[in-house]
């Protein structure tokens, strides 16, 4: 229930009738502060109503009687209507309509004498939306008491004029007029009638003999009607109801609209329903009431003996009462419905505040989705919400809560009454809401407060988004955030905050303490790698030199990434490689990795880096060879790295590196001393696969004849056997020779090999080699025959073309160009191509050299 109105006495019984007990009020009219009362003894009483306020601030009225006048008739005054522009009262008494002066209450005579009167009238109404533009003329609808007609009159200061008369299907008993539209209550139904066009629209049935019909104009082309079943129905000029009906008493005798409420009167009560949600909002006891009218927003009631005013309470007070009772939806409906009655600026401010209050009510009820929507629409200053959590706002914040307050909560503990689960749910909502609004216009001017509060909530709740907040653009207040992050052991996050505020050294010192186990923070298990990446991308070179030593001592393989993964840009200065190599002097493993990065990955073409890397590789091989027992796998890998460098690089100084046999063989290969290299590989190392690999590597960029020469050289080394004074199994060398021939037979000259092989070797051993050699020889023979035949054919064709061309002249001039090189001729000696095309002799010679067996010419006959 809402207290929307207060019932205030306006004219007391004693003031109206004194000691005359039989006088009853029959009708009333109010025009501004002037109240007119018609009584059953044919008097009109004129009162002046003044609004007054009681000592408690409640509204009230003080009535002053100005005049009363007897109309000279016998029956009660049935109806009164004021025409203020004419200073006239339109009076219905004894079926007669006539005009009375509003000041003197004297009957107005007509211009021709005898009074301005209309006879046989049952009821009438004034058009409050007139179609006539004359301001000193009143339009009036009149119901005949004897005929089924409706008449339209124009009322002037001293006369009335009939302008239209329409017939109705039944006897009309009530009427209301708006523009050209008449809303009529007939005997059995309601209808809408357009008196200009004559068009009509039946509405719904109603028995006027059982219940008094009610027809009230409530707005432009809209009417309120009493419908069967105790309903108050709305209908517009088109006969359509655009509002839901209200349910009032079956015995209602009067109704009025004071937006957004419908006021209805029955024998015992006044009921007040909302037009917005059709709910009953207030009930007032009122005995013996029989008149209820709305006069320009002032709702006046009358019993038979007194007059009362139904004073609406301020909408803001009604809304606050609803909010106080946590009736949020009703308060919002009432606020939005009252928009047309409140100035735009005032309404916007009121609406925002109501939305904010509604949001806090639903927040207190843990209805977070609804609360968020109301906060968003009401453009809530989010600090109102943040202030519910003590200490979230930074000490530098100047925020104070709104006055009057938007809610009744001191803080979240007060709201949740100590229930920590509720507190936690509220904080989770606050995190979500602040995260949504922090990048919107809502936080303009208070970004520091919002981001700092969000950081504190993230840290307290161990929220994943803490790092995202600090890694992005933020306005967290450092002084307030540091102790909070330390309290919850969020040291990595604190380092990010230091970095965002330009304090990289403080960030690194903190992270190093965590990585060394001095402080506990499980946020990142890969914190050491993160520190290395941070130094790798840091633009502060001094910081890199300062903290790189710690990283290299902790893990040189990862730590060296500070230097190897560093990219050069205008914001990230380049480190001098010589300075880095000097710095890494005491970190051997890191130095090796750095030199590998320079030489093998970045391809830096400097002799000192290549030589330094080769020396380190050699030292590594020597170190592994001196160990006992030897780690063969590590030794093999070390040698492979050294050999790869020696083969691929041309920048190192060879004389520094002739220390080990395998590597020396590679160096001899670089000097094209292949016999010495193969001697080392075969006789000293007995490493036959390396010997074959050496031949392939040494001939990789040379022609096939060079490769054949190398393989014949290796075969000769195998067949020569072990040199004098050196122990070795000659059978092992012979098997290596057989394997070489069978694996690489296509490289060898078969005839030369057969001459080199000992007489006693079995052909079965050489079967794969011999089979491949015979096939290669036959293929070469057949290919040469084909080439010879093609050459013969080409020669015959050329002879034929020559004979044919000799029979006709060839024209050559300085203006004519060669078909092949497009230059002009400077001498008469030319070659004629098929088709009579002259070309230079040297161009043809070049063409023939380029394609000795086949020439494609551009003539139409395609001759070659």
UniProtKB/TrEMBL annotation:
Domain CNH, residue spans: 22-299
Transmembrane region(s): none
Cellular component terms per the entry's GO annotation: cytoplasm; membrane
CHCR repeats: 565-723
An individual GO BP term: intracellular protein transport
Protein known as: Transforming growth factor, beta receptor associated protein 1
């Amino acid at each position: 229930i809402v207290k929307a109105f207060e019932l205030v006495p306006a004219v007391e019984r004693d003031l109206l009738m004194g000691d005359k007990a039989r006088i009853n009020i029959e009708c009333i009219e109010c025009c501004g502060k002037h109240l007119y009362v018609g009584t059953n003894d044919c008097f009109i009483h004129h009162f002046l109503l003044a609004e007054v306020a009681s000592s408690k601030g409640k509204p009230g009225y003080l009535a002053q009687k100005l005049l009363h006048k007897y109309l000279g008739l016998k029956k009660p005054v049935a109806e009164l209507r004021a025409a203020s522009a004419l200073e006239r009262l339109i009076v219905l008494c004894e079926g007669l309509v006539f005009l009375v002066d509003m000041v003197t209450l004297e009957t107005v005579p007509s211009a021709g004498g005898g009074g301005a009167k209309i006879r046989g009238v049952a009821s009438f109404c004034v058009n409050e939306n007139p179609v006539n533009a004359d301001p000193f003329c009143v339009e009036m609808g009149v119901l005949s008491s004897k005929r089924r007609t409706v008449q339209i009159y124009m009322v002037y200061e001293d006369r009335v004029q009939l302008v239209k008369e329409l017939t109705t299907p039944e006897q009309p008993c009530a009427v209301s007029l708006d523009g050209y539209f008449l809303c009529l209550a007939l005997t059995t139904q309601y209808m809408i009638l357009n008196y200009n066009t004559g068009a009509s629209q039946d509405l719904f049935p109603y028995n006027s003999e059982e219940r008094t019909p009610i027809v009230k104009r409530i707005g432009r082309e809209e009417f309120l009607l009493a419908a069967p079943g105790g309903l108050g129905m709305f209908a517009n000029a088109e006969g359509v109801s655009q509002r839901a009906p209200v349910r009032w008493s079956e015995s209602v005798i009067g109704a009025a609209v004071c937006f957004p409420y419908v006021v209805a009167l029955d024998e015992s009560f006044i009921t007040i329903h909302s037009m917005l949600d059709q709910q009953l909002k207030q009930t007032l006891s009122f005995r013996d009431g029989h008149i209820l009218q709305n006069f320009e927003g002032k709702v006046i009631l009358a019993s038979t003996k007194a007059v009362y005013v139904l004073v609406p309470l301020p909408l803001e007070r009604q809304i606050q009462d609803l909010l106080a009772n946590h009736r949020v939806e009703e308060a919002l409906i009432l606020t939005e419905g009252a928009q047309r009655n409140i100035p735009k600026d005032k309404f916007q401010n009121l609406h925002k505040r109501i939305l904010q209050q509604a949001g806090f009510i639903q927040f207190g009820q843990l209805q977070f989705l609804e609360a968020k929507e109301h906060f968003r629409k009401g453009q809530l200053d989010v600090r109102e919400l943040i202030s519910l959590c003590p200490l979230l706002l930074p000490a530098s914040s100047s925020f104070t809560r709104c006055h009057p307050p938007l809610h009744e909560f001191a803080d979240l503990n007060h709201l949740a009454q100590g229930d920590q689960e509720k507190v936690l749910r509220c904080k989770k909502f606050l995190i979500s809401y602040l995260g949504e609004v922090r990048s919107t216009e809502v936080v303009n001017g208070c970004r520091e407060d919002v981001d700092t509060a969000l950081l504190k909530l993230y840290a307290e709740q161990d929220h994943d988004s803490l790092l995202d907040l600090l890694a992005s653009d933020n306005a967290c207040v450092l002084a307030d955030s540091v102790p909070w992050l330390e309290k919850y052991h969020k040291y990595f996050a604190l380092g990010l905050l230091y970095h965002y505020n330009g304090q990289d050294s403080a960030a690194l010192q903190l992270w190093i303490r965590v990585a060394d186990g001095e402080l506990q923070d499980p946020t990142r298990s890969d914190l050491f790698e993160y520190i290395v990446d941070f130094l790798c991308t840091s633009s502060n070179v001094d910081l890199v030199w300062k903290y790189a030593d710690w990283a290299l001592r902790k893990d040189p393989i990862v730590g060296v990434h500070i230097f190897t993964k560093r990219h050069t840009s205008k914001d990230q200065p380049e480190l001098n490689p010589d300075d880095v190599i000097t710095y890494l002097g005491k970190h051997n493993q890191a130095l090796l990795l750095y030199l590998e990065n320079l030489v093998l990955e970045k391809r830096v073409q400097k002799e000192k880096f290549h030589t330094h890397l080769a020396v380190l590789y050699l030292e590594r091989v020597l170190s592994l060879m001196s160990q006992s027992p030897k780690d063969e796998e590590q030794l093999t890998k070390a040698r492979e790295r050294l050999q790869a460098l020696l083969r691929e690089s041309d920048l190192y100084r060879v004389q520094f590196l002739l220390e080990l046999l395998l590597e020396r063989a590679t160096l001899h290969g670089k000097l094209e001393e292949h016999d010495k290299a193969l001697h080392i590989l075969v006789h000293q190392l007995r490493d036959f696969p390396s010997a074959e690999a050496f031949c392939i590597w040494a001939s990789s960029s040379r022609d096939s004849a060079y490769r054949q020469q190398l393989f014949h050289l290796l075969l000769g080394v195998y067949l020569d056997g072990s040199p004098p004074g050196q122990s070795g199994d000659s059978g092992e060398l012979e098997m290596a020779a057989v394997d070489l021939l069978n694996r690489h037979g296509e490289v060898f000259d078969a005839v030369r090999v057969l001459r080199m092989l000992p007489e006693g070797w079995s052909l079965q051993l050489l079967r794969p080699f011999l089979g491949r050699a015979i096939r290669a020889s036959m293929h070469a023979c057949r290919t040469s025959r084909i080439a010879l035949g093609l050459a013969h054919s080409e020669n015959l064709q050329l002879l034929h073309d020559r004979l044919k061309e000799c029979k006709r002249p060839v024209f050559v001039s300085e203006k004519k160009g060669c078909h092949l090189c497009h230059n002009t001729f400077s001498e008469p000696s030319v070659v004629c191509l098929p088709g009579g095309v002259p070309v230079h002799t040297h161009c043809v010679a070049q063409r023939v050299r380029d394609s000795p067996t086949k020439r494609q010419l551009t003539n139409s006959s395609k001759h070659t």
